[in-house]
Automatic annotation (TrEMBL):
Family: Belongs to the HAD-like hydrolase superfamily. CbbY/CbbZ/Gph/YieH family.
Superkingdom field: Bacteria
Protein name as it appears in the record: Beta-phosphoglucomutase family hydrolase
GO molecular function, one term: hydrolase activity
Provenance organism: Isoptericola variabilis (strain 225)
Length: 246
């Protein structure tokens, strides 16, 4: 039997290149907002520092705070706008869903090959994402039927699970696939996600460097860093728990 029995995948930037699309959506949200507020312009560095991997409203709150602006939290029912954290988050959701409809989405070929390899080897698999759009993205990418367990922003809200970098959503996914955290692999492209994997005591944390930087991923908890999952195969399941750690 392999040392590790499950692989828990982040979605955006790991299975699908939606991270790049989300980056552009956040820029479309915050570029005019920064101009209107008279604060420093939004940059890609802000995405990685404040938004990447976090639940949407948490990302809004972190970025707004970074510019010294105070906004009420509001309610998830707020209309898209700029009067509250939730209103800004809902505007971002509106922007990104329009982009999904206009541009579509294809999964990373290397990630699909890795998914094929680990499932053929008998590993249980799940998707763990902060995004509430996860079902839409999985369906658009043709991956919806590949995952028996999905723990996304909707599940986190319903079950009151803390978002990444807290390990709660990954721990919940491991429970649902019936594998202890120490026998599961976490695959992430965000520093908040690899930090969640390390905090949860998972057997192996794989960082996929889509732009945040290999060193940053290692510093926050990745045991192994690759630029594409095509660099890995089912032999990752043979790792003993924590084998890649210094």
């Amino acid at each position: 039997m392999p040392g590790l029995r499950a692989v828990l995948f982040d979605l955006d930037g790991v299975l699908t290149p939606t991270a790049a699309l989300h980056m552009r959506a956040w820029e479309r949200l915050f570029a005019p907002w920064c101009s209107q507020q008279g604060v420093a312009p939004y940059t890609d560095a802000d995405y990685f520092a404040h938004v990447d991997g976090r639940p949407r409203y948490d990302g809004v709150a972190a970025f707004v705070a970074s510019r010294g602006v105070e906004l009420p939290w509001g309610s998830p029912d707020d209309a898209p706008g700029d009067g509250s954290v939730c209103a800004l988050g809902n505007r971002k959701d509106e922007i990104v869903n329009r982009m999904f409809a206009e541009e579509g989405i294809e999964p990373y070929p290397g990630s699909v090959r890795f998914l094929d390899a680990v499932t053929a080897a008998g590993a249980r698999v799940a998707v763990v994402s902060s995004s509430r759009n996860t079902p839409t993205v999985l369906a658009a990418a043709g991956l919806a039927d590949r995952f028996e367990v999905v723990v996304d922003g909707n599940v986190a809200a319903r079950e009151r699970l803390a978002g990444k970098p807290a390990p709660d959503t990954y721990v919940r996914a491991a429970e649902l696939v019936g594998v202890p955290a120490g026998q599961a692999v976490v695959v992430e492209d965000a520093v908040s996600g690899v930090a969640a994997g390390r905090a949860g005591g998972f057997g192996l944390v794989v960082g996929v460097d889509r732009g945040v930087g290999a060193q940053a991923l290692r510093e926050h908890g990745a045991d192994v860093v690759v630029t594409d999952l095509d660099e890995l195969d089912a032999s990752v399941l043979d790792h003993a728990a924590g084998e890649g750690r210094a």
